[in-house]
Amino acid sequence: MEAEKEDEEDASPEEFVALSDFSGSGSEQLSFSSGDKLLVHAKPSAAWWWAEVRGVIGYVPASYLRQDTAEEEDTSIEDPWQDEEYFGSYGTLKLHLEMLSDRSRTETYRQVVLRNSASLKNKAVMDLGCGTGIISLFCAQLAQPSVVYAVEASSMAEYTKQLVKQNGCEEVVTVLQGRAEELELPEQVDVLVSEWMGNCLLFEFMVESVLLARDRWLRDGGVMWPSAAALTLVPCRADRYYAEKMSFWERPYGLDFTPLQPLAQQEFFTKPKFSHHLEPEDCLAVSCDVICLDMHTLQVSDLEEMKGEFHFCMEKSGIFHGFTAWFTVQFESLEMGGATVKLNTGPDSEPTHWKQTLFMLDRPVSVNVGDILSGTVTLHRNPVWRRHMTVALHWNINNSKSDADSCQVGTKSFPMWR
Ligand code: GJV
What we know:
Layout (H helix, E strand, L loop, with lengths): L1 H9 L3 E5 L18 E6 L5 E6 L2 E6 L3 E3 L2 H6 L7 H7 L3 H9 L1 H13 L8 E5 L5 H9 L4 E6 L3 H11 L6 E5 L11 E6 L11 H12 E8 L2 E9 L2 H7 L15 H9 L3 E4 L11 E7 L10 E9 L4 E14 L9 E4 L11 E12 L4 E10 L7 E10 L8 E10 L2
Parallel strand pairs: 6-7, 6-9, 7-8, 9-10
Antiparallel strand pairs: 1-2, 1-5, 2-3, 3-4, 11-13, 11-15, 12-17, 14-18, 15-16, 15-17, 18-19, 19-20
Helix pairs in contact: 5-6
The protein binds ligand GJV.
Ligand GJV binds next to β7 and α8.
GO molecular function: histone methyltransferase activity; protein-arginine omega-N asymmetric methyltransferase activity
Keywords: Cytoplasm, Methyltransferase, Nucleus, S-adenosyl-L-methionine, SH3 domain, Transferase
Subcellular location: Cytoplasm; Nucleus
């Protein structure tokens, strides 16, 4: 026991990295910039830590920091892309069944091919991450491309070849098993189609593979499908989820279990909740597109840090439990003036297997009609684990009704998952 105590007192400070800029107020709080290294000496509360930046000591907001994994980088990281696990999961049917059963998603890609069938004639197409080959098969079935290169890294590619044969498409569809990054083709393509979108649009960062393939294999003037993507945010209520995970501890079986609430917050609200079903009536304001990507011009380096702003005017009074995010993608027409096809994964559209992503605040806030909620959202890609990111939210609420013109500020960072 004694020895342990001594260890604690001598505990060496932990290394952290700042996720974004922070300007401290008063003499007790430190200011720092995104990327700064901090030494955390003590964690007196969950939200505020005692830390050192460039020899100066003071309080820092814990949510602005992430553990410095530099040490890990040298030793234990074998594959920052975790490809064995990633492509392993796509080698079984579970995920393909989920994607193919998603009618909204799959039908959108079918519509894109159908509406562009005339223009696809004699075009060379690449289907990146073709899975079971559904999009490639739509191309062969509904249009007359000269060739479709169906690229798939997982072992599913073996079956995809069989499906192409079984459906009489082997003249048009060529299945290539391998990572798109290592691909060799006899020619450049006119169209690069892919279904790369993850939770919160970017999670998994398959988009990087798509951009690299674009730069190498899409001919000048070729078309990307999807051509544009947007991430959307809305402040929302989440009464049921809050009750299930947090209010529950108030009086289970007539007993007071509230000492478990900090633990519950840590366990259930630290990471975002994937597969959240947001009811339109739980939106407290009109949603806001926070990040818009042009798939023709987006660069891999842009993915490291993507920042967006939001500005909401509350349309309802109620409890603000958190933010919900979803995405929309657009497919431009191959014809001049042709109609754009959209896939919207938001609460007002047909449900998809992505559902929505919920970011719970640590403490719900009561808001009124007319209150202004504004702030920023930043997606920080994990510098080590390339398929992961942290979503940092900063906001302030200006109360319209209060005479004192009160303003509340909040900040929280959500790892997904590292
Ligand atoms: N090269 C080849 N196939 C890939 C690659 C890559 N770089 N990355 C992902 N895939 N929308 N979040 C494959 C993966 O094996 C799976 O079959 C499919 O693309 C993912 C599609 C859905 N995931 C998503």
